[in-house]
Amino acid sequence: MMSLRTRVALSGAAVLTVFVLLTSLAMERAVRDSVLSAREERLQAQIFLLMAAGEEEPGGLVFPKALAEPRLSLPNSGLYAKVLNALGDPIWQSASAVVGAESPTPLPLAPGQQRFERLTGRDGRAYLALAFGVTWATGPTPQDYTFVVEEDAATFHAEVGQFRASLAVWLGGMSVLMLVTLVLILRWGLKPLRRVAAEVSAIESGNRTQIQGQYPAEIRALTGNLNALLAHERARQRRLDNTLGDLAHSLKTPLSVMRGALEEGQVPSPVVETLQEQVTRMGHIVEYQLQRARAGGQQAATLAPPVPVRRTAERLIATLNKVHRDKGIQVALAMDASLQFHGVEGDLMEMLGNLLENAFKWGRRRIRVGGTKRGGRLTLAVEDDGPGIPPEQASQLLERGARADEATPGHGIGLAVVREICDAYGGRLQVDRSTLGGARFRLILPG
User: Fold this and answer.
1) How far apart are CA 114 and CA 133, in angstroms?
2) Interatomic CA distance for residues 394 and 427, integer angstroms
3) Are both 44 and 103 inside the same structural domain?
4) What positions does the domain HAMP occupy (predicted)?
5) Tens of pLDDT, residues 376-418
6) Cβ–Cβ under 8 Å, residues 88 and 107
7) Which residue segment(s) compose the domain that 268 sits in?
8) Which of 87, 170, 190, 337 is most buried, by the most CB atoms less than 10 A from its CB?
């Protein structure tokens, strides 16, 4: 899922882009209108100058060769002037329009009418034209004329284009500056969240027991609730541990006395078989309830400090070597010392201990224990050179009470306990054939 910083940054960039585009369009439109208005005023001033310079003669209006605007006397200067009669025929045009000029001629206007428009000549060039209709009453007979002044629109487009380029540079620079500022503000604003994440990671690794930093009011409720949850889980785990210890201690002595009495023959033979069956059943029930309680407490497992796997395996192997010293089994331990299990140490000892005890029970001469961490998952493997497990019996042996050999001592719940604890952690237990010739049990747990 996309991070909050990326979401806000992308949203801000999108909003800023739309804002800059709309702002640039609005500013360009305003500048275009302003430049057009200025062009219209300039052309209107040229018309007034022409009207002031014109004189009525018997042959019509005449204008001096040297006009107030020098560009009207310069051929193809980009500024042109014309005078039309009432029929729309040109009766005079400036020297600038004499040589190869193809400027358009607007329609004649009624006296007092003015029109500013964009026209296109026969050569495809665009012009800004201002036409003004007047009645010339200085001669014996009033005459209607239309004064026209045209300017090449290229200068207008060049001015607007220059403004557009300058606007793009400045708005682009300001946008980049605002984006950088936004990213820095986001980094500063989200800093408390990064600190919370770092403290939670420290709690998961066992370096801290609660969130201790000072945070803004918006996050303080979250950190307070997390601390309350952590305290509740620790208290719950302590109560669970105490309950399990008390239960184990209170049941251990009575069961031991009963087993001893049965073994020493202190109980009449007619009830021995019944008592043995009930003692075994009590042991199953106690073990099952203990594992149910442990599995129910797995929610707090990720809050426990990490457990070194190799050190735990070495302790278990040393204990089992003493128990099975008569078999002379050689154990090869292949795992890195930095390998860690994120959970309760007792759960790791229960799972690994049951698998090792099973391997010592069925193995002949060799046992191999390995561990790796890959793809965020911890994999522990216990292999032996015993008779192995047929594929059709693999899933059955993971059920509570199932045993591969009824003649071998045991209650048939060890592998089921391993599977239940493994399932509680979100992992899985796999059984297949080992290269040593016997069975291979693999614990695959979340890292």
Assistant:
1) 6
2) 17
3) yes
4) 187-238
5) 789 999 999 988 888 777 766 666 444 444 444 443 456 877 8
6) yes
7) 217-295
8) 190
Which among 295, 321, 355 is the end of a domain?
295
Residues 109, 30 share a domain: yes
Whether 385 is in a domain gets the answer yes
- Provide the residue type at 199 as one letter: E
> How far from 30 is each of 22, 78, 121, 152, 170, CA to CA, in Å?
12, 25, 27, 21, 17
> For 142-185, how does the pLDDT look when each residue is reduced to its tens digit (9 = 90+)?
888 999 999 988 888 888 889 888 988 998 898 889 888 888 88
**Spatial contact of 84 and 90, defined as CB atoms under 8 Å apart:** yes
| Contact predicate 377/428, CB 8 Å | no
User: Is residue 238 assigned to a domain?
Assistant: yes
Instruction: Find the helix or strand (DSSP H, E) in which 171 lies.
Output: helix 153-189
Q: How many domains does the chain have?
A: 3
CA separation for the pair 56, 157 (Å, rounded): 37
87: which residues sit within 8 A by CB, 6+ positions away? 108
Instruction: Report whether 93 contacts 116 (CB < 8 A).
Output: no
